[in-house]
Amino acid sequence: MAQISLTFPDGNSRDYDAGITPADVAATISNSLAKKAISATVNGAHHDLQWPIDADASIAIHTLKDDDQALELIRHDCAHIMARAVQEIWPDVKVTIGPVRDNGWFYDFDREEPFTPEDLGAIEAKMKEIINARDAVRTEVWDREKVRAHYEGTNEPYKVELLDRIPGDEPIRMYWHGEWMDLCRGPHLQHTGQVPADAFKLMSVAAAYWLGDNTRPMLQRIYGVAFKNRDDLKKHLNFLEEAAKRDHRRLGKEMGLFHMQEEAPGQVFWHPNGWTVYTELQDYMRRQQRAGDYVEVNTPQLVNRKLWEESGHWEKYQENMFIVEVDEDHAREKAVNALKPMNCPCHVQIFNQGLKSYRDLPMRMAEFGSCARYEPSGALHGIMRVRGFTQDDGHIFCREDQIEEETKIYIDFLSNIYRDLGFPEYEVLLSTRPDVRAGSDETWDKAEAALLSATRAAGIEPEINPGEGAFYGPKLEFTLTDAIGRKWQCGTHQVDFVLPERLDATYIAEDGAKHRPVMLHRACLGSFERFIGILIEEHSGKLPFWLAPRQVVVASIVSEADDFVHETVAALKAAGVRAEADIRNEKINFKVREHSVGKVPAILAIGRQEVENRTVTLRRLGEKQTSVLPLDEVVQDLAAEAIPPDLR
Q1: Residue 472, class by beta-carbon neighbours within 10 Å (0-12 exposed, 13-18 middle, 19+ buried)?
Q2: Which of 43, 96, 280, 412 is the residue whose CA sits 20 to 30 A from 554?
Q3: How far apart are CA 447 and CA 407, in angstroms?
Q4: How far is Cα 589 from Cα 615, in angstroms, rounded to an integer?
């Protein structure tokens, strides 16, 4: 029999008969490893212990101690075990697919009756029975027609369709978990008992179209999460509970910030409180941009398709654009326009007005640009994922030799903003040239080197994200981490050699000839809508005092205090504090509770004694203790807190 050589992680090699499985390899090393093994990595690919190895290869044997491989298999096996459990309880249910995702998996089922919370409990119980049975997991490669005959015979039409989607040269692999079988690429664990029975949970049921196509049947999707042990599951469930408490949609309603409705999908109705947060943040960004030598512009929202064709967006981005047709007077055909999905082509139009000299560069242009992009309804999520939004958009027109310096200036600019907004640390990703791209390798070398050098000069070592740059140039992506560990990609900085070429942007260089500027696309917050959502969830609605829409409520304890309440409110407003009076005929505990739910940072209570002494009782949000302080002192202290961080 032919021999193959397998090389282990320590560099040592051993010879084996061709066709040996990783399970057999593990057994040649030790009985202990053979019992603990769950899978292998062969030539960099995740490999089932039962799959034969037919040629020389590198190999690493995995156990449950290897987190990445263990979690992938646990979650994948949970999907199969759940599908088996469903069909054991309800044999008429048809199965489809069950991929691993995020912290768990989902599986789509075709069942006439909707699954209930009680059903999920029954499925979990059945899954634990299957796990405790320690049923063997085995696999075979079948002939395509044998697979088709099997699934047609068992009336599983979705599996037949999946079979037809598998390329003809791929092996058709079947997996058994006990006596239950599924079509699957694998790999899987070696028996059901390797799934920890106390470390998974079924979370929810949702509707899902077959293969995401709204013309196909509506299925029921069951989501689950799974981990290596009970403690990790408990930690994840606690995280979800905390995230639910911070959900910007719930807090937005409680705080009276915004609402959304069917008549304007993916668009925000900002209420007075929410618009206060929005304008405070926008005013802050406007001051920062002025200090950073940006010129602010404003460009049209509705632009003729001609510009989008010239920029390349019509070809590459049209499916995300809202198209508007207008019957122009005396026109033979309708004028076709589009709501702008981004601001960059319009900014080039401003740059192109009049001659520009090398002395004018760099030119830093900024716009709070209102944009519209089509997002599928299923992808919309509160104010985090919308169709109508405003970017803190900016474009820097510069020479090639200015890329590095402008990048460093921008990183410093962005760092100060993030620090002011409560995110002193962030991660940076450098996405490099994709396979399909515009521009010469020399230009890409220069752009990537400039971005890397500038990022390092700012004291940051970026993570390289190979091949994920835009087709026109590399980009930096800035990721924030919130209070509960979630990551949010917000800022971007992209080098663009393509758009200035397509839209014929030029400047007069020192040699008297026309040259193309480089266009640096940049955004700090991304969209105001999404960033405000992040801030709400980061702070659980308890926004920094300067951003809080209702900074102070002055509440009366008795009606005799009403006049002093109004005097206090007037003094606070005169000092620049957003204050309002609450003189309703309600008990003070009721008022405090209501305004605490609304996340008002400071509540001042005034009764007879406070009126006599010209004092107020101050209660801070989230604190049980109160302080009795002179009115003038409280006004002075709160006025200082209300000053935005860049003006202190």
Answers
A1: buried
A2: 280
A3: 11
A4: 19
Residue with tokens 């508007």: 324
401 is catalytic: no
Q: Write down the catalytic residue from 159, 395, 446, 522.
A: 395
259 classed as catalytic: no
Is 393 part of the annotated catalytic residue set? yes
Query: Is 402 a catalytic site residue?
Result: no
Confidence of residue 71 (pLDDT cuts 50, 70, 90): very high
Catalytic residue among 80, 159, 364, 521: 521
* 236 in active site: no
CA distance 469 to 435: 10
Q: Which of 579, 608, 578, 604 is nearest to 592 (CA)?
A: 604
pLDDT per residue as tens digits for the range 435-463:
877 778 888 888 898 889 888 888 889 99
Q: Which residue has the higher pLDDT, 556 or 2?
A: 556
Which residue in 347, 373, 437, 493 is the catalytic one?
A: 373
Q: And the tokens for 307?
A: 């510009």
Residue with the two structure tokens 């002494």: 613
pLDDT tens string 277-317: 999 999 999 999 999 999 999 999 999 999 999 988 888 88
| Inter-CA distances, 588 with 132, 451, 614, Å | 57, 57, 19
Strand locations in 170-237 (E): 172-177, 180-183, 200-209, 218-226
What Cα–Cα distance (Å) separates residue 631 from each residue in 198, 557, 620, 637?
57, 16, 16, 10
Distance (Å, whole) CA 549 – CA 601: 10
Type of residue numbered 99: P
Is 521 designated active site? yes
Label residues 140-174 b or e (16+ Cβ within 10 Å = b): eeeeeeebbebbeeeebebbbebbeeeeeeeebbb
Distance CA 591, CA 402 (A): 57
**Region of 256 on the Ramachandran plot (φ > 0 left; ψ -120 to 50 alpha; else beta):** left
Give the phi and the psi of residue 519 in degrees, each rounded to 5: -110, 120
- Angle, nearest 10°, between helix axes 441-457 and 403-420? 40
Torsions phi, psi of 394, nearest 5? Answer: -150, 150
SS3 386: coil
Q: Does 490 participate in catalysis according to the annotation? A: no
**Is residue 307 within 8 Å of 335, Cβ to Cβ?**
no
Instruction: Name the catalytic one among 50, 391, 402, 494.
Output: 391
With b meaning 16 or more CB within 10 Å and e meaning fewer, what string describes 279-294?
ebbbebbbebbeebeb
Type of residue numbered 550 = R
Please state the φ and ψ torsions of residue 568, each to the nearest 5 degrees.
-65, -45
Contact residues for 174 (Cβ-Cβ < 8 A; gap 6+): 139, 140, 141, 142, 147, 181, 182, 183, 184
